[in-house]
Amino acid sequence: MKCWIIAGIAGYCLYMLAPDCSKTTEGKNAMVTKTLSLAYEKEITRIIKALSLEEKVALLHGNGKFTSAGLPQFGISEVQYTDGPLGIREEISRDSWNPIGWTTDSATFFPTSSALAATWNTVLAYKYGIAIGMEARARNKDILLAPAINIIRSPLCGRNYEYFSEDPFLISRMVIPYIHGVQEQDVAACVKHYAVNNQETNRGNIDVIASERAVREIYLPGFKAAVMEGGSYTIMGAYNKFRGSYLCENEYFLNEILRKEWGFRGAVISDWGAVHSTVESALAGLDIEMGTEAPYKDYYFSDRLVIAVKNGVIDEKIIDEKVRRLLRVLMNCKTGKAGRTAGEINTPANHQLVYDVASEAVVLLKNSAGILPLEPAAIRSLAIIGDNATETFAGGGFGSGVKANYEVTVLQGFQNRLGKRVSLKFAQGYREQYLPVRDSTRVFGREDDPEPDPELIREAVRTAASCDAAIVVIGTNRRFDTEGTDRHDMLLPFGQDELVNAVIRVNPNTIVVVIAGGPFDLRGIEEKATALLWTWFGGSEHGNALADIILGRVNPSGKLPFTIPGKLEDSPAHALNAFPGDSQKADYLEDIWVGYRWFDNRGIEPMYPFGFGLSYNFFEYSDCQTDKARYASGDTISLACTIKNTGTRAGSEVVQVYSSLPEQVKNRPVKELKGFAKVHLQPGEEKKVQILICVNELSWYDENEKGWKLESGEYSLRIGSSSREKK
Ligand code: BGC
Q1: How distant, in Å, are the alpha carbons of 90, 127, 305 from that of 236?
Q2: CA–CA separation, 460 vs 600, rounded Å?
Q3: Would 486 be classed as within a structural domain?
Q4: Which pLDDT band, with edges at 50, 70 and 90, does 447 fall under?
Q5: The Cα angle at residue 118 between residues 117 and 120, in degrees rounded to 5
Q6: Cβ-based neighbour number of residue 369 at 10 Å
Q7: Could you tell which of 89, 145, 162, 239 is best to mutate to test the pocket of ligand 1, judged by most ligand atoms within 8 Å of the CB?
Q8: DSSP 8-state assignment for residue 36
Q9: Is 348 a domain residue?
Q10: Which residues contact 71 (CB under 8 A, 6 or more apart)?
Q11: Is 271 a catalytic residue?
Q12: Residue 399 CA to ligand 1 centre (angstroms)
């Protein structure tokens, strides 16, 4: 049910640099902003005074792939960095990208950020932060190169799975508790990649052009929340440029916005190999240069930085300030101090957490004829079809992965849950294969081979026809979606459409599962599939979690953190031919119309809308109201609603609140997410849900006035279980 509320906001126009959002739901319930403490400043001053220029500069650049110098004479050991968003990366050789080959560096494989975002569960985000932080400590790490929170701008970005969402509010609310959790474990979070880093194509040099409003309303809020409310100790400067200047030497993003506006007191760390200058970077606010190749003394922030100071181009005080920020971070992590958390790794509790996230992340997109959940007693045989049913996702491709101490595949999940009660038959169904992309002279890439393998399809059809039900597991894997490259198109790869259709033809009880971190074109399968589930690179327990959802042991409650467009050209950057730009420049022509904002304002029907996800239950909304009719700047809107579980199973509902600006605002989005809460209900149970919205969160960025503007007028607040209904 949808409920409409009109909240009349009285008052005057107010210009703000940073709307105060400390009164949002999470702000009240769980969060106390934890910024870097200044308790160690005197000790830091003493250390800085005792160091030579060379000793200070030695602290400011990598001295190994994932290390930078410490100060053993002051009890500070070498600084240990680790990727990343999937868990604690295996140990990499000091001077090459090859794994060292230890047997003691396995870790829990955590569901990717898009999975975490799909839970819409801020408490889980906090627990996730604690668990990953704890594992980082157990492996003696100081700085965790996560969370990665870039906006999912295009379905094609190769790193979408590492990112949270297309929506800045969802990102912000999830990332704050995540960072708190990590840093409570005496590990610094390094939120990345700051900023407007939304494609892999030409990522090393692409110059992003975006309007100030788009930057402020879409691309920066997640980072701002991470810094101002999450208190992230460090932040990673991205590879690309913004308005002509590399992000690691971008005066506007680093000094102006990050430090002056947001008051960031931590360290800015470059992405690996993202630095292009000594003086510009040093003056613009970069603190630490990390890189990919030795010799380290050739780094911009090594000998050249010493020379720049000696030549008087850079004041030594600037070096002192960088050292101070680094030491502040390390001391806040209790480096070299008593009582630092030792951490624990691969614990049953962390595996349980991974299971909880993976199961809450599964999005049920379609369940016609109520085919789900599958009743094990009603079937004697089950076909599990598709290469992704036996695929593992902790590693592969380019970029960070995890040496998972175990990973339950989808097939194993069903074997674990069904044992010998149901006969399980597996067929591979499709083969992952690629074709070279070439011009007349050379091969310069690869693309998936869309031709189905007829023999594998025949085998899949035979298997499906001989079983009571079939599950087809398709989508992408870590070699297909990978750092460093973007997808060529949005089509399902490797002939998966044909496979699904062939299986459906012989077995009407077919359930389709897509595993992916970013949207695919589902037109070829959606209509015919009786049941469709979306899931993710879901971590060590993914197979068990997915089996439990399909078998009804857990009621699905995941909601899409991005829109699934009908076709690629429907999505904003592609409709305007603005992705990936040319080899030099990406002009974000779609402006603030990213994700559902575009689909709403252009009246385009998506395949599945942002925020969408079904349950095996129904939830009824009633008595939705705001506490007052009129609010002023700085107030908090308290919105209450009664939610009732009208089904026969326990389940969770994500209550979503969207607002619209008053009519006089030019170019206002039809709606924007401004609040949400996840509520768990027993069958028949009803609960009153309260969602708090900071009035200042309803401001928009006025480019003419160069500031946030809170408009007087009538605002609509819509409350419901999705950003819109699926047609
Ligand atoms: C990635 C970062 C990562 C770093 C170190 C870079 O290529 O962009 O996300 O943390 O490598 O592995």
Answers
A1: 20, 23, 20
A2: 40
A3: yes
A4: confident
A5: 70
A6: 9
A7: 145
A8: P
A9: no
A10: 47, 51, 55, 59
A11: yes
A12: 7
- Give yes or no: residues 327 and 372 share one domain: no
Q: Residue 400 CA: which ligand 1 atom is closest?
A: 12
Give the amino acid at 456: L
Give the distance (Å) from ligand 1 centre to CA of residue 200.
12
Q: Give residue 667's domain range.
A: 3-11+611-720
Length of the chain equals: 727
User: Is the model's pLDDT at 191 over the cut of 70?
Assistant: yes
The residue from 271, 521, 635, 702 that is catalytic is: 271
Closest ligand 1 atom to residue 239 Cα is 8
**Do 136 and 144 meet the contact criterion of CB atoms below 8 Å apart?**
yes
Q: How does the average pLDDT of the chain come out, rounded?
A: 93
CB contact at 8 A, 401 and 89: yes
Does residue 523 have a pLDDT over 70?
yes
Which residue's alpha carbon is nearest to atom 8 within ligand 1?
271
Q: Residue 85 gets which letter from DSSP?
A: B
Give the tens place of pLDDT for each residue, 556-583: 999 999 999 999 999 999 999 999 999 9
Atom of ligand 1 nearest to the CA of 203: 8
- Domain holding 428: CATH number? 3.40.50.1700
Residues with CB under 6 A from ligand 1: 83-84, 145, 192, 271-272, 400
Provide the residue type at 373 as one letter.
P
Cβ 153 vs Cβ 562: under 8 Å: no
Cβ neighbors of 262 (< 8 A, separation 6 or more) are 18, 224, 227, 228
What's the CA gap between 306 and 249, in Å, rounded?
18
Question: Distance between CA 82 and CA 138 in Å, rounded?
Answer: 12
Q: Looking at residues 359-374, what average pLDDT do you find?
A: 96
Is residue 121 located within the same domain as residue 210?
yes
List C-alpha distances in Å: 126 to 31, 363, 607. Answer: 10, 21, 31
